[in-house]
Amino acid sequence: MTPTPVSMFQRIFFPLLQRSQHWGLTAVLWLLCLAPVQAVVDLRVAIKQGVRQLPVGGSTTAVVRDEAGRQLGTIPQGDAYMVRPVPGGVQLGHWRSRQLWVEPTGEGYIWIGDRWYRGDARLVPRGNALDAINYVDLEEYLYSVVGAEAIASWPIEALKAQAVAARSYALYKRAETPNDLYDIGTTTATQVYKGLQSEAPSTQRAVRETAAEVMVYNGRVILAVFHSSSGGHTENVEDIWSSPLPYLRGVQDYDQNAPVYQWRKTFSRHDLSNRIGGVGAVQRFVPERTTPHGRIVTMRVVGDRGMRRVSGAELRKALGLRSRLFTVTAAGNGFLVRGRGFGHGVGLSQWGAKGLADRGATYRKILGHYYRNAALTRIDS
Asked: What CA–CA distance (Å, rounded) separates 185 from 176?
């Protein structure tokens, strides 16, 4: 049986041409010609989990190997083949094994699902579905993360602070809970990774100029969490999650120019009653516990049929709010939510880092401000 390729133009080059409308064609050509940097450590990133099929290919000829590393064949340059779970493993084209590796040759890139990535792909069955894991050099992974988490046009010192924070976070997660398949995901639950799509010359520069640098406390890489905007002041970690950490302390933020520094959202009583069940028609909200800087820990929701005590995290999710730093007041036939910031409010504030960089702060100063008592060092020193 001959493998059935996905259209090269549709799956491989057309998405790049679409993106050129935003970057300019020069940026696309620059991206395709980039050479990888020397590896520091490989990271395993879960790109797709529990999917039934997805296209995989390479920008150069891609070698397909079985779980023992034996070469089974090659995927022609620019083509992508569908991979599917089968009894006892996965199948890519006519190749079948308990798991498969796809490795672009030369300085090629790997196509997984709907975008390009650096590194290789490992395809592993999971029940009636499969996982696609991207094995990528840590520094090259950060080219993408910095652009996905921050904004490429920001001051370079803010981007460098983001690079160090993201590198520290990735290494912390890699060591914290070893997983047989992967070290980290790709979403805001960990840190956002979009492959080549979110790279830019500025994000590469930020990574290169901070190569191998991490934040440590007592000789160990810290949990360098970050968020978009705190709304004026970050929080002590124990007020948001659980155990205190000496380097995640609340500090003044410099995010006043963030577009999410202040926000508001309105709800009808009917809408709120649907979103917060068990109380009937919602009548009022009573904050029970807040953090020292005003984030909701627990809220009492009172309705005409009862009362519910709801956590701030649960209420934020139910109402689709940007943060837990908000107040709720009656407004006409509904309620008005006024809030500040975006995210959990712990650790580095990305808009605050930009604000400090705009004031002339270096990335070292920015990191020292948001990660108290931690030190900057190199993992290869």
From this structure: 14
Distance, in Å, from the CA atom of 365 to the CA atom of 378, rounded to the nearest integer, reads 17
DSSP state of 10: I
Q: Distance between CA atoms of 234 and 295, rounded to whole angstroms? A: 10
* Helix orientation angle between 156-176 and 363-370, rounded to the nearest 10 degrees: 50
Look at the block and give the residue holding tokens 């709720």: 328
Q: Which of 146, 292, 183, 166 is closest to 226 using CA atoms?
A: 166
What does the block give as tokens for 332? 């006409």
8 A C-beta contact, residue 305 and residue 296: no
User: Any residues with CB less than 8 A from the CB of 233 and at least 6 apart, and which?
Assistant: 250, 251, 252, 253, 293
Rounded to whole angstroms, the Cα distance separating 25 from 161 reads 29
The verdict on pTM exceeding 0.70 is yes
Q: What are phi and psi of 157, to 5 degrees?
A: -65, -35
What does the pLDDT profile of the chain (381 residues) look like in tens digits?
Answer: 334 444 433 433 434 433 333 333 333 333 333 333 333 589 999 999 999 999 999 999 999 999 999 999 999 999 999 999 999 999 999 999 999 999 999 999 999 999 999 999 999 999 999 999 999 999 999 999 999 999 999 999 999 999 999 999 999 999 987 778 999 999 998 999 999 999 999 999 999 999 999 999 999 999 999 999 999 999 999 999 989 999 999 999 999 999 999 999 999 999 998 999 889 999 999 999 999 999 999 999 999 999 999 999 999 999 999 999 999 999 988 999 999 999 999 999 999 999 999 999 999 999 999 999 999 999 874
Evaluate whether 63 touches 74 at the Cβ level (below 8 Å).
Answer: yes
Environment class of residue 230 by beta-carbon count within 10 Å: exposed (0-12), middle (13-18) or buried (19+)?
Answer: buried
Cβ(130)–Cβ(123) under 8 Å? Answer: yes
CA dihedral 372→375→376→381, nearest 10 degrees, is -160
Q: Which of 235, 227, 276, 228 is nearest to 252 (CA)?
A: 235
C-alpha–C-alpha distance, residues 36 and 57, integer Å: 19
